[in-house]
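Final report, results section. Input specification for complex C-07:
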Amino acid sequence: MNAPALHRAAGERAIARCDALGVAPYSDADSGLYRAWLTPAHRAAQAAVAEWMGQAGMATRLDAASNLIGRYEGEHRDAPALLIGSHLDSVRDAGRYDGPLGIMLGIECVAALHARGERMPFAIEVIAFGDEEGSRFPASMFTSRAVAGTLAPGALDGVVDAAGVSVAQALAGWGLEAAQFHQAARRPDEVIGYLEAHIEQGPVLEAEGLALGVVTGIAAQLRFEVSVRGRAGHAGTSPMPLRADALTAAAECVLAVEAVAREAASDLVATVGRMQVLPGATNVIPGRVSFSLDVRAGDNARRDAGAAQILHRFEAIAAARGVQVEAVQVQDLAASPCDTHLVELLAQAVETQDIAPRRLVSGAGHDAMVMRALCPTAMLFVRCDGGISHNPAERASAADAGLAVAAMLDFIERLGAIRGN
Ligand code: GLV
Ligand code: MN
Ligand code: MN
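Structure output:
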């Protein structure tokens, strides 16, 4: 087979593997895909991916933070590694490519090098991270933050999922210890860079007729857990003016979130994606509501100003309605520019596939934003249908995945030429 046919076959296999991981036992849901960190579905997916890594010529291991790592040695043993990764966890009712595609494309790059018996001046490690989405616990990217060495001491303490299971208990179920989690940290001298391929999750590449794009940076994120305390009461006997309804107050807060982001008329975006109403009965005025708040912008200052404005509006709503609103920040991920040198190299690799190297900023979060603290990062975007993501209708084509493999291999070769000199 010639190179384009090989890359095309690699793209087909990468897509087919993502599809295979889209159903039970690789999903925790009976129908559709939901794969959360440290669940049986995650475990099953890791086993399948470890097997594919082995077939591609990699030695596999699980690190102290539950990340699956496949290593393909370089020309010399113990050479520092180029890390290629993405995440295995998903949102609820997910698409099949957000996360897994980046891992499968990394495996295909190594498989191609292995098939032609080629070693680079550096090792290649493909990493399958566990919790980029954070759909089980309130915060995300514990696993990549552990690898990057930026996880604060005690960061896992008291973190529980909706069922009250702590991170420490979930890790223990996998034979891992929370006390050792930080040992997943890599030394900067062990690593030369981090490359992540990911579906774009937006419509730009498709609109411009481009299969691939080059990410220049990732937007800043804040996450909060907000709780509203009112007064539960009888739905039939409590006159409207005498109520302290936590849900109507929360509803006003949600509209305030939307209004602040709209009024900013910038790249500020703010979302309430989850809400719990207690006690949750038809004939009881809600006494307590908790909801998530996600605030993002291309730079930290715009994000922080937007969040401050939202919290200010919450205070006013609480005062006007006689309820208490408390917002606890559970995550702060700074805006994360990619490395200019690696961006340039990736742009050249994309251009070599006869694709204009469109540069774009990622509004979605990625493990790459965390890995920047450890090493230079680069991200390749792959076009997805209609820009649809976080949705079962998410699609990427085998042809585009094949072009991604070709561009990533070209990037690896370019890096090899530089490092070999
Ligand atoms: C992950 O997809 C995120 O951007 O939150
Ligand atoms: Mn993702
Ligand atoms: Mn996602």
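The mean pLDDT is 97. The first helix runs from residue 3 to 20. This concludes the modelling results for the funded period.
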